[in-house]
């Protein structure tokens, strides 16, 4: 049993579905099939993400990729009237004087690119967040942890949150309405490599033949033969690329989210912090130590996370079952909680309601996504935790690569040279503005 199609896309996460949507939209005569091991789109790491977006990056490439994607999501919700749960609550980085000084050149670059940021001094932060602790002169525990003071903050207003399930379902719904096809509950086990010009000799392709990826093998559904294969496998890309001798420079890391139940008037007031956005909600807050950050989710509920690097191992070939990656309560209690409650004591005693883990797929070269085309295969990935915020732009780049266009047109008629985020002629800056 087998299937033939023009394009087969592997993966129904944000990058897979955005790619499928733009491929079908711009090539309506082509048959586009998306294959995924899950029973519905977006059930892998996309569905486990913190679901935040921002355009505040030091790299001009990341600025363009994120800003155009955010504009498209706003267009989808405000003009197409498709609810994707988007709320511009903003990002707030709390920093000490040294961090503020180092951030100066990046903020100037953002301003030149039209990326809006707002700087708050300590006095303004105390007015907006009265219970924020900014100094630790007499706190022995804070001294032991070497916690920096809070001397100011940087606020990004065109940042916020959305619902990843709603966003992926928008792409899937529109893709299906255009005649695209989904093959769910189907495991892709291998990429099929064959000769560019078949001679009918057993064992081809031989080293003296040109070869190309000509389809995928699946568990239970036979082979899917296609003119072009698009791999948007996220953390699992190495599993399919390494057996055919291709490198993606992707390694996964486990990331964890802890849902905290609000307890007390202090957290209720914090949830509804005024002065940051028209919604009257607290923005995502990034603390000046170890990447701990938190956001309001629903009345009485905060999500807390930390993008730790040291002693957090890379995973080359992740397990398929994400339940194998469990959130660590001791990690929250011993690493995250002490930092969180030092800056915001109102969190003391608030119980963990639930917790879960997922995987980030890091591009280990420069923390910027990649997309390239080679021998019948288009590969997109390496989002380094920013797949949602750059997903639409990457989907448009995949479509341009498929059509052998040197330039993609991102939302808002923004031109972007496709080779910039490939590997052969890569021309991007390393991202320095990280959580």
How does this model look, in words?
The chain is of the alpha+beta class and 435 residues long. The chain folds into 2 domains: 2-56 and 165-249 and 365-421, FAD/NAD(P)-binding domain (3-Layer(bba) Sandwich), CATH 3.50.50.60; 91-156 and 251-363, D-Amino Acid Oxidase, Chain A, domain 2, CATH 3.30.9.10. Helix content is 27%, strand content 27%. It contains 10 helices and 20 strands. Strands 1, 2, 8, 9, 10, 11, 17 and 18 form an 8-stranded mixed sheet that branches. The chain has an 8-stranded mixed sheet with strand order 5-6-4-13-14-15-12-16. Strand 1 (2-10), helix 1 (14-26) and strand 2 (32-35) form a beta-alpha-beta unit. Helix 1 runs parallel beside helix 6 (164-177), helix 1 (14-26) runs parallel beside helix 10 (387-402) and helix 2 crosses helix 10. The protein is elongated. The termini are far apart. The mean pLDDT is 94.
Question: What structural keywords apply?
Answer:
alpha+beta; 435 residues; elongated; eight-stranded mixed β-sheet; 27% strand; D-Amino Acid Oxidase, Chain A, domain 2
